[in-house]
Amino acid sequence: MSLQEFRSKINSIMDVIWAGGLTNHTAVIELMIYIIFLRELHKHDQEQKLLDKKYKPVLSGELAIYQWDNILSLNADALFGHLGDAFEKIAEKTTNPTVKMLYNKAHVKLFARPALRTVVHKIEELMADLESEEKTTRSDLFGDLYEYLLSSIASAGTGGQFRTPRHIIKFIVDVIDPKAEESICDPACGTGGFLVAALDHLKQKYTTDDFKKAGKFPMDILTGKQQKFLENQAFTGFDSDPDMIKFGLMNLYFHKLPHATIKRRNSLVDTQGETTKWDIILANPPFAGKIDRAAVAEELQMDTGATEVLFLNYMIRHLTDRGRCGVIVPEGVIFQAARAHKAIREKLVEDAGLWAVVSLPSGVFNPYAGVKTSILFFDKTKKETNDEILFVKIANDGFDLGAQRRPSDKNDLSCAVEILNAWKENQTMPSSCHSGLDPESIATAVKKSKIVESGDYNLSGDRYFESVDYTNVKWPMIKIEDLILTIVPPKKLKKEDIKSDGRYPVIDQSQDNISGWSDDVDAIISVQNPVIVFGDHTCAIKYIENNFIQGADGIKILQTNDKLLPKFLYYYLIVNPIESDGYKRHFGKLKSTKIPLPPLEIQEKIVAELDGYQKIITGAKQITENWKPKIEIDPEWKKVKIGDVSTLMTGGTPRSTIKEYYNGDIKWLVSGDIHRGEIYDCEGRITQLGLDNSNARLLPKNSVLIALNGQGKTRGTIAILRTEAACNQSLVSINPDENKLISEFLLYSLKEKYQEIRNINGENQRGGLNMPIIRSIKISLPSKINQKLIVEKIEAERVLVESAKKLIDIYEQKTKDVIAKLWSE
Fold it and tell me: 469: pLDDT confidence band, cut at 50, 70 and 90?
């Protein structure tokens, strides 16, 4: 089944559920879990009976009437009652703890009976297809299903729930290499993907070749004692999300691990005094959220609510003395200057036996997030012996880094496994990889003393990778016109022929990389080798590798000669742009510009280095440009007018002709200040006399401000005041009733209504807002506890966005530094 077919079938089932009146995403997932598990339970019973005549099916005796074949035969009215009875009776009568836990308090919430019957039969069709595929290529059927359910209902990423790609899970497990009689834990297990991958690894490791050739993996190399340990003690998983737990239970149950320990538990909160330790921890814990510091288990406290830091502390504490860990972390853990982040890095290096840091490309978690991540490998047996830490930089993971993650023939992972396995055994790198990749091109070893000496224990590989040394080298300075082989003749396309979609991108002199799309084959500019596009008026510079169409605006299409790599020229001109001085033609200025010209092999190294930086910049920009604070509205929340849960104040302007009213100590805000978002200070100042003799007044700290009018997009803009200040009459201060409404929740609620507020009296009107209008605006109001959780989640996401902005600054500066080294004049 193709990915498109798979998604189509899931969408078809959910369309029926939604059309039947069930729209709550949690209820949709639960319904599908309950029905799918009932079907798979029956199939599992049938398979086990064939293998073992003594096996007693779960759906036997008085539960036999709930076998899947009986369910399929019922009409719509009978099915509704029968399915509801099945959920209740199975939970009540079964002695199987997994089945009992899954169906505990289960209900059929889809009341449209024909829709329910359609869902049951569509699930049968889907699962029959997946079942045949699982026997050949799929090893994590339920993980795949949950992944698409999440993405389809737009909840992927909530609380950091990004499903880890299977090839990344396998990479981590292959490096950790679990062995017989080792206990394995995932403290944020989700659907159990890491645990399933570890089991698959053990099956391959401990099954003889004859069985493997037959497609069977009984792990016949293991002793009876080892088999029993594997089935009953080896695997443990915790997760705080009940939906995740249900899928995880199913996943392991049908991978023949019905006795694995899978529990609903918040590993950071519910583990006070917990002393259990494991030999292996594998995890991709939530890293998009913060947690109430007071709720964190005492032994895990690190004076932070950052979950990524706390989970690392949990893992270090809960590894045995021989324990090993492979964990995915956000890039902030690697370099952030916060005290807790520094402290956890010090623990990793000094106490946990950190031996490798693997940097992943920014798009690994697409389509859920472009967040930049790394993998940390630590081994407590190495903490006294390893004096070097290996840094590995994965540029390509076998898929492109776009939203669709299409397969690619570029893959550094196999070479990385070879490098890491050699390093963990004897702290040496292989001389070559089977893939042909040079190990030194993606890996470097750094003395632990060098990491320690800075005091911040920075684990950013790019900080330690040796760049090409251009110091004191005098490259010749050559005019660009002497390096241009041809200027490709343009084929202009009329503006009216540019569309929003099409086969070929349209390129013009605008600052946007792509201006539109077209299918006009007669206008195609065929690109045999990469070319540079130069905006003759704007001086915009673009690098093009594929066929495109020229837009109506004038551009120069440059083909370089064999002495100059076009991408080297591109990066050089990005850092040292040709300055535009109005609507003039600037091609002559470009041609006469001199650039340093290293040999081609040096150009290639520079381009490879800058390509790595650019991937980080691109991934970080995806985060910063696409993130907007979002509140998932529950229809059960009541709607209230702002005036019913807040008091409103506005201000005034002291008379401008009286000098004594101005340049005092009191901060005085005008509409232009509101674009700061969080306001700690402003340029305007008035005196106490000015405040007393005007309508200006002091606004309380943490009040929410909204602009009544102002130029451009100012009207309707929202900010929060973090200091005491007065304001003029263009702003309104909203002061929430602290018993009902949190200021930050109000801030994000109103930010989402920005366009709606502007439209109240027409988008084109400069004024129009007033106090009565603001009072009448309605917002959804959950409980204060839920408000707090929502704000914490948004604030945690904002921290990641700020980290992404910092990454952009860092790597843009690194790019400039590389180019700056080229100058010989």
Answer: low
Instruction: State whether residue 564 is helix, strand or coil.
Output: coil
Q: Tokens at residue 523, please?
A: 């206008």
Burial zone of 111 (CB within 10 Å; 0-12 exposed, 13-18 middle, 19+ buried): exposed
User: Measuring CA to CA, which residue among 174, 618, 180, 573 is closest to residue 400?
Assistant: 618
pLDDT exceeds cutoff 90 at 13: no
**Predicted local confidence at residue 159, as pLDDT:** 41
Q: Return d(Cα 441, Cα 116) in angstroms, integer.
A: 56
CA distance 72 to 41: 14
Token digits of residue 770 = 């007033």
User: What's the confidence (pLDDT) of residue 332?
Assistant: 77
| CB burial readout 484-497, b (16+ within 10 A) else e | beeebebeebeeeb
For residue 306, the 8-state DSSP code is B
pLDDT in tens, 517-526: 888 877 788 7
Decide if pLDDT at 91 tops 60.
Answer: yes
How many CA atoms lie within 13 Å of 56's alpha carbon, on the beta-carbon side? 7
Q: What is the pLDDT of residues 394-451, one digit of tens each?
A: 888 767 655 556 667 778 899 999 999 999 988 888 888 888 888 888 899 999 988 8
d(CA 534, CA 585): 11
Six-digit token string for 811: 């790597």
Spatial CA neighbour of 614 closest among 819, 412, 797: 819
Count of CA atoms in the C-beta half-sphere (13 A) of 460: 18
CA gap 136, 140 in Å, rounded: 12
Counting Cα atoms < 13 Å in the Cβ hemisphere of 197 gives 26
- At 801 the three-state DSSP class reads helix
Contact criterion met (CB below 8 Å) for 548 and 528: no
Structure token pair of residue 27: 């209820």
Q: Which tokens is 22 given?
A: 């069930």
3-class DSSP state for residue 211? Answer: helix
Closest CA to 340 of 807, 799, 680: 799
| Integer angstrom CA distances of residue 416 from 73, 356, 412, 463 | 53, 11, 6, 19
DSSP 3-state of 140: coil
Separation CA 156–CA 140 (nearest Å):
18
Dihedral angle over CA of 596, 601, 605, 607, nearest 10: 60
Token pair recorded at residue 484: 């241009």
